[in-house]
Amino acid sequence: MAKRPIFEETAAPATAPAPRAGIEAPKGARRAIQIWLGLLFVMVLAMITVGGMTRLTDSGLSITEWRPLSGALPPMSQADWQSEFDLYQQIDQFHLLNADMTLGEFKRIYWWEWSHRQLGRAVGLVWAVGFLFFWATRRIPSGWTGRLILPGALGGVQGAIGWWMVSSGITQGDGVTSVASYRLALHLGLAFVILGVIAWYTLLLGRPEAQLLQARRAREAKLFSMSTGLMHFAFLQILLGALVAGIDAGRGYTDWPLMAGGVFPPGMWDLTPVWRNLFENDGTVQFIHRVSGYLVAIFGVVVWARGRRSAYGDTRKAFHMVLGALSLQIVLGIVTVMYGAPLELGIAHQLMAVLLWVLIIRARYLAQYPLGRTIRGPHERFRQHRRA
């Protein structure tokens, strides 16, 4: 009889057992979803850009009805165009600002608003098709279903807010020629929220959950908290910028650093009740936007000073990029005001806000989930401490 091996119980089986199914989606799903979210990001960015062009060309009230489905088709005949023009001729903006407008001139502003709305429909379609595909094929990673629903839900709310904003300017006999500035601020603010959510999710999907969990153990909590504060502060500045755009306050005072030769603009609190000055007084609104910009700049430098001392090279670079974008945005804002907010500078200022917003989110992400490990020795830490 052959002798039994001593370690028979622990010997490896002849064939390895089949791997157990994990809780994650099939391999590659995270990357595919990341690409889908990247497409949505580009489309939302295009919407923000076209929306800015629509606002700066005073085109937002050219379509006076909300037709989510039938409005997808533009006027197809001369009679259709005349019908749309007739509707526009009934509102106050036409009577007070564009009474001599021709049908050809109307078509130019109509196309801006129609393109903005069409992009909104396209974003909703791309989100719905993508989500249903990943859900039906079980490619959504565990815990991500609700997250991926969120951009679509916010997009639906955004469409309703968009019409709520436009409806505030479609008046007859009230003397209103533009949308309410606070509704415009809410509309733009939600667009930035959607953009921020997509950017954050895209960053999270760039690494497997196991790597994220491991990276979070090395998180820089104080830096993450400070960058979160900077993100919120930048968002407030974006809302204030929308108030400026809503009443064309950027074109009223073109000197800097003073306003009409003084520290404070004249008539800051002339409107009654007093709270109306915060939304409707061009001098007050621009002054608040300027002061808020200075405060964001100061806080941004404080956050950067903390970020430059990070133990991780990628994190330090991320905060250097934030400071660079913040500096460029400040210069661009000053130049935009001094030149009376022309179309090109106004759009550039808005797009720079998008870039700064995304860079802050990325820096915040790297503070929460650092890349790699620190390679600093004691001498480099000493030099960093002296520079700080």
TrEMBL record:
Subcellular location: Cell membrane; Membrane
Catalysed reactions, as listed in the record: Fe(II)-heme o + 2 A + H2O = Fe(II)-heme a + 2 AH2
Pathway(s) annotated for this protein in UniProt: Porphyrin-containing compound metabolism; heme A biosynthesis; heme A from heme O: step 1/1
Enzyme Commission code: 1.17.99.9
A Pfam family the protein falls into: COX15-CtaA
Similarity-based family: Belongs to the COX15/CtaA family. Type 2 subfamily.
Its job: Catalyzes the conversion of heme O to heme A by two successive hydroxylations of the methyl group at C8. The first hydroxylation forms heme I, the second hydroxylation results in an unstable dihydroxymethyl group, which spontaneously dehydrates, resulting in the formyl group of heme A.
Official protein name in the record: Heme A synthase
Organism from which the protein derives: Pararhodobacter zhoushanensis
